[in-house]
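Researcher: First entry.
Model:
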Amino acid sequence: MHDKTVVELIAALRQGDISSEELTRGCLDRAMALDEGLNCFITVTEQQALDAARAADARIRAGEAGPLTGIPFAHKDIFCTRDVRTSCGSHMLDNFIAPYDATVTQKLAEAGAVMIGKTNMDEFAMGSSNETSYYGPVKNPWNTATVPGGSSGGSAAAVAARLVPVSTGTDTGGSIRQPAALCGITGLKPTYGRVSRYGMIAFASSLDQGGPFARSAEDAALLLGTMAGFDPRDSTSVDRPVDDYSATLGDSLEGLKIGLPKEFFGEGLDGRTGAAIEAALEEYKKLGATPVEISLPHAGYSVPVYYVVAPAECSSNLSRYDGVRFGHRAADVKDLEDMYKRSRGEGFGAEVKRRIMIGTYALSAGYYDAYYLKAQQVRRLIREDFLKAFSEVDVIMGPTAPGVAFGLGEKADDPVSMYLSDIYTIAVNLAGLPGMSIPAGFADDMPLGLQLIGNYFGEARLLNIAHRYQQATDWHRQVPPGFG
């Protein structure tokens, strides 16, 4: 059943063709057999998963099932999960057993979805390749010598390899969309405030947002429908009704205006990626859409703005990990200062330390105005560019990543090159807009991603636009060799 979509699995469960317990055992067996070569999982929760599956089967028999009841999924190890290690991919939290559930965790459990484990990720979500994890890098199932993207690489690779039908991720600067593109699956970053951040371990609080990974827009719509919603425990959560994302998937695209930012198609874009975008645009024209050239004049500042704002916020958020309250504590310390220094020095990896130092510098008294304040001012200009564009077009289209997945270790010693992997995704987070990546072709037998960017709370329209494209193409149905 690993080749079935969520929609197909729901039908099979309701008709009694398979039980959730059988489906869950199948996912667990595949994870245990295949994950050694991929390293998608930090923790596999076998017994809890089987218990949840049996409970789901009872709900189905009683006629009390919701859309996701009995469906297995993998959870990014950044969402707190009661009585399960929640490590955030870091040595600092290697021994942390969460005492409560994140809101997203709670919502999925109440819906009857079955978590089979927690997925590997860049440490504290800081990375674009899933190589900064304390638990080692995740490998791309299309070519295990390449990266899956980051920071949600474990979740993306698990769906691409058909270990689970869907998974959760988080996106701070592209960490759902970029791995979705590199692994050839569908990933959606919702509007900031659409999905609760309560219990989602913070990296950069004004940028982080949880969202779904799936094989198709149709499946992503179901998962997002459960994850989204107002949460009074999250002060950034927006009190707004959740759309029925599945209801409008088949709507016509006649008259749709697609914005093509000229800044996205210049130097640095792999020609094969550009060709895939052009081919996708031709499909959309057949569906009734019209392309419109637009400009996002401040988009070029997105990377420098992000790498001031995000490290500044991470510096503040990660100050709580001091060896006192929870997390790693150094042994045989001499005094309190020694405990602080050694606990943080041992607990954090190189990339996290780099960003903490950058952020602390940017927030320091002599440089706050020159760096952090200026970055926030340019961030406003980036947002205004998008608002102007959306007065002219319905959706913005472009590449998700500059090219295909790069080799493991290829950019590990070049932080700037690594940071530029997210050049097309970061602006969306700075503006707080929804964006998604869908498969749109291949180059050198590796997947290419098409990025769709919507206006605020336009997730239903994005899913509709993606779904209609997926009805006309089969890129999203391709399976990595050896995982079919």
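Researcher: Second entry.
Model:
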Amino acid sequence: KYTLMGGFAYDQNPAPTENIGFELPDSDAWLYSLGVQYKVSENMDLGFAALYDYKESRTVRQNPNEPGFPIYGEFTNASALLITAGLSYKF
């Protein structure tokens, strides 16, 4: 009747330091997920899940002589929590 689900991932940041900005403050991330699916009947399933995405801190010090807007600082305390619920019915 129940299906338990879990997941883990390490997501390496693809953006090089010279491309990091306030519009793309990306860093490496650790992702954890848990979920459960319950078979209500032969035709109906209910599901609930959550995913937590923790971003590592990243220090950026771009050269002020390069064109564009120089960035000096650190991106910290970034994370996301996604929660979902689903219902499936087979006709």
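Model: Note on the second entry: The two ends are 19 Å apart (CA to CA).
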